[in-house]
Write a structure and sequence with these properties.
Structural class: mainly alpha
Helix content: over 70%
Number of strands: 2
Order of helices and strands: HHHHEEH
Largest sheet: 2 strands, antiparallel
Radius of gyration: 63 Å
Strand content: under 5%
C-alpha cells in the first residue's frame, strides 16, 4: 500500500471521527425531516407540472382530433360538390392533424403512466415523512432519557468519589471514635470505683492475715468474731456505753469500730 493511500485513509478516518463526535442526534433528526420535507415539496411540484403538461397534451390531442374530423367532413363536402381537388387538399390536412393527434395520444398515455407513478411515489414519500416524524419524536424521547440517565450515573459516580462523601465517611469514623472513647471512659470510671473497694477489702484481708501470723508466733488465741448481745438500756463496748436508741447503721458501725480496736 502506498504512502499516499495510507495518509488519505488516516485523514478520512480522522474526519469521519470528528463528524461523528460533532453530530447531535436531535439536530440530525430535525435536519433529516426538513430535507424530506423539501423533497416532498419538490415531488409535489413535479407532479403538478406533469399534470399541467398532461392537460396541455390532452388539449392539443383533442384539438388535432377535432381538426382531423373537420377536414374529413370538408373533404366529403368538396367531393359531393364535384371539387375533387379541394377534397384531396382537405384529406391531406386531415391526415396531418390525425397523425399529430396519434403522436399526442401516445405522449398522453405515457404522461398518464408517469403521473400515476409520481402520485404513488408522492404518497409513499408522504407516508415515510409521517412515519419519520413519529419515529423522530420517539427517538428524541429516547435521547432525552439516555441523556438523563447518563447525567444521573455521572452524578452518582461523582458523589461516590467526591470529597463530600469522603467527609461523611470521616465524620462517621469520628463519631465511632467518640463513642469508643466514651465507652472506655465509662469502663475506666467503673474500674476506679471497684478498685477503691478492692483496695479496702484487699488491705483488710492482708492485715487480718498478718495479725493471725503474729498470734500464731506469740501463742495468743484468736479472738471470737461473735458480736456481744445488746440490751434495751444500752451496752458497754470497750469501756464505752452505746445507747440502744442509736440508729441500726450507727450501732453496727460502732460495733465494727469496737471490734477493730480490740483486734
Amino acid at each position: 500500500m502506498g504512502i499516499f493511500d495510507r495518509i488519505s485513509r488516516v485523514i478520512r478516518a480522522n474526519v469521519n471521527d470528528m463528524i461523528d463526535k460533532a453530530e447531535d442526534p436531535e439536530k440530525v433528526l430535525e435536519q433529516s425531516i426538513r430535507e424530506m420535507g423539501d423533497d416532498l415539496v419538490k415531488m409535489r411540484q413535479a407532479v403538478a407540472q406533469a399534470i399541467a403538461s398532461q392537460k396541455r397534451t390532452e388539449q392539443q390531442y383533442q384539438k388535432n382530433l377535432s381538426e382531423a374530423n373537420t377536414w374529413q367532413q370538408r373533404a366529403q363536402l368538396a367531393l359531393s360538390k364535384g371539387e375533387e381537388g379541394l377534397a384531396r387538399e382537405a384529406l391531406v390536412r386531415k391526415k396531418t392533424h390525425a397523425e399529430t393527434a396519434a403522436t399526442l395520444k401516445a405522449q398522453l398515455d405515457s404522461q398518464v403512466q408517469q403521473i400515476d407513478a409520481l402520485r404513488r411515489n408522492l404518497t409513499a414519500l408522504e407516508s415515510k415523512i409521517s412515519e419519520a416524524k413519529t419515529k423522530k419524536d420517539m427517538l428524541k424521547a429516547r435521547i432525552s432519557a439516555a441523556k438523563a440517565n447518563k447525567q444521573l450515573q455521572s452524578t452518582i459516580s461523582n458523589i461516590n468519589s467526591s470529597s463530600a462523601m469522603s467527609a461523611f465517611e470521616r465524620m462517621e469514623e469520628r463519631v465511632m471514635l467518640e463513642e469508643a472513647e466514651a465507652s472506655a471512659v465509662g469502663e475506666l470510671a467503673g474500674m476506679g470505683e471497684d478498685s477503691k473497694w478492692a483496695s479496702l477489702e484487699g488491705g483488710t484481708a492482708v492485715d487480718d492475715e498478718l495479725e493471725a501470723l503474729k498470734r500464731q508466733l506469740s501463742g495468743t488465741p484468736e479472738p471470737s468474731t461473735a458480736l456481744p448481745a445488746g440490751n434495751n438500756d444500752g451496752e458497754i463496748i470497750d469501756g464505752e456505753t452505746v445507747s440502744s436508741n442509736t440508729p441500726p447503721i450507727d450501732d453496727e458501725l460502732e460495733k465494727l469500730r469496737a471490734e477493730l480496736r480490740k483486734s
